[in-house]
């Protein structure tokens, strides 16, 4: 059963969110019983092979989110608005968010940042009935401008800005806020100050929920080991081994066998000769 926003906001247990990018990903996440699925623009890195999330388009997000939805019809689904699709004015942001909701069946959208411009977008969308998840701390879409993919909120100004941003997102109507790559104690403080749930990644255990990129936790995406993730499986290795075993069987004519083949009557065959 899909959980409602009030149910998510009053969960006794930490909220569990994972990313998904396609039909099997959605299916597995739903069967595993997660609270929320995020169709993240981490799609760019872990599925499309870009070295950042910046090249991901609205069309990419919609294409993948539709597949996720087919696999997970009964799970709360959040879809990232990608870079550039909510930065050119409130009207454009509204139009793009409506497309995501209508074309994918998303329950909510997520966007990065808490600048005055973004806050205005959050306010407009939420007032018009589109639930918004906020995202502060490390924001991959604009990481270059943030000085690279690095921990945020460590110094006075950074900690203050991160706290103020999260509070302002709640005020603007966000139903939940992702905290990415900030010190655990800052995340704890923000989680205490906010009424709406925080969902952390690289933000310590005291957030109201946690999110991981599924391709990290499954070992499908095997970049450098990430401090913030934990690998629960080695599906990348399993995939290589399986494909190599298939290749060896083909070369040795051990696949297919009679069991994999179709039969026909001898007299039909005889007429062909
Ligand atoms: O794109 C993504 O996967 C995300 C999560 C890491 C929060 O934004
Ligand atoms: Na994202």
UniProtKB/TrEMBL annotation:
It is an enzyme of class 2 (transferase). The active site is at residue 180. It catalyses: (6R)-5,10-methylene-5,6,7,8-tetrahydrofolate + 3-methyl-2-oxobutanoate + H2O = 2-dehydropantoate + (6S)-5,6,7,8-tetrahydrofolate. Its cofactor is Mg(2+). It is found in: Cytoplasm. Pfam families: Pantoate_transf. Binds 1 Mg(2+) ion per subunit. 3-methyl-2-oxobutanoate binds at residues 41-42, 80, 110. Its main location: cytoplasm. Pathway: Cofactor biosynthesis; (R)-pantothenate biosynthesis; (R)-pantoate from 3-methyl-2-oxobutanoate: step 1/2. The keyword Zinc-finger does not apply. Its EC number is 2.1.2.11. It comes from the Bacteria. Transmembrane segments: none annotated. Keywords: Cytoplasm, Magnesium, Metal-binding, Pantothenate biosynthesis, Transferase. PANTHER family: 3-METHYL-2-OXOBUTANOATE HYDROXYMETHYLTRANSFERASE. Homodecamer; pentamer of dimers. Catalyzes the reversible reaction in which hydroxymethyl group from 5,10-methylenetetrahydrofolate is transferred onto alpha-ketoisovalerate to form ketopantoate. Belongs to the PanB family. This is 3-methyl-2-oxobutanoate hydroxymethyltransferase. It comes from Deinococcus daejeonensis. The gene is panB.
């Amino acid at each position: 059963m899909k959980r409602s926003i009030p149910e998510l906001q009053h969960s006794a247990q930490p909220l569990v969110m994972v990313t998904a990018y396609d039909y099997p990903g959605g299916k597995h996440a739903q069967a595993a019983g997660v609270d929320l699925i995020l169709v993240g623009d981490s799609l760019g890195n872990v599925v499309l092979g870009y070295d950042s999330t910046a090249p991901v388009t609205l069309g990419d997000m919609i294409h993948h989110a539709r597949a996720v939805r087919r696999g997970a019809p009964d799970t709360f689904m959040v879809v990232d608005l990608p870079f550039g699709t909510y930065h050119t004015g409130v009207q454009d942001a509204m139009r793009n968010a409506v497309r995501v909701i209508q074309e994918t069946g998303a329950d909510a959208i997520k966007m990065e940042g808490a600048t005055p411009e973004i806050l205005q977008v959050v306010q407009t969308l939420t007032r018009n009935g589109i639930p918004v998840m906020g995202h502060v701390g490390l924001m991959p879409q604009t990481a270059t401008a943030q000085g690279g993919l690095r921990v945020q909120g460590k110094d006075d100004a950074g900690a203050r800005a991160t706290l103020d941003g999260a509070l302002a997102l709640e005020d603007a109507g966000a139903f939940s806020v992702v905290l990415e790559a900030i010190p655990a104690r800052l995340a704890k403080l923000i989680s205490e100050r906010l009424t709406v749930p925080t969902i952390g990644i690289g933000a310590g255990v005291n957030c109201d929920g946690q999110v991981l990129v599924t391709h990290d936790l499954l070992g499908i995406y095997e970049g450098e080991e990430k401090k913030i993730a934990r690998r629960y499986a080695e599906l990348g290795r399993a995939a290589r081994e399986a494909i190599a075993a298939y290749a060896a069987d083909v070369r040795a004519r051990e696949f297919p066998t009679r069991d994999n083949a179709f039969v026909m009557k001898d007299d039909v065959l005889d007429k062909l000769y």
